[in-house]
What does this fold into?
Amino acid sequence: MRTDLNNALKTAMRSRDQVAISTIRLILAAIKDRDIAARDHGVTDGITDDEILGLLQTMVKQRNESIGLYEQGGRLDLVESEQDEIEVIRRFLPAQMGEQETRQAVDAVIKEIGASGFKDMGRTMQALRSRYLGRMDFGKASAMAKQSLS
It folds into this structure.
């Protein structure tokens, strides 16, 4: 994953794509910050690819929240900027699951782990995160799991 990001940065620099350059640099800086934080916990190799995928998902979520605020404030120039950054970040994420596919995955996990009530919500979400990190919107999945478990 790190190699892909570094190669993408080089390609963006060659093509003078300023949005891609700045966004990929932000991603690499965030990864480096997480690597440094992981050293405090004895992890010397840096964060894993799964953790990088989680980081990228968080970055997309943050930008989507910012878009909502910018739209309320009438700052359409900033909305467009955030959308451009989301497009760059999504290049490094696997294809996102649709609503139907998410519903099927939630139901399958609930059945597989034998979840029977709301008390099993944590186990359900943990299983979903371990299997679908980077591909699933866990906010939607959580709502679906709550609905199924209650």
Summary: The mean pLDDT is 89.
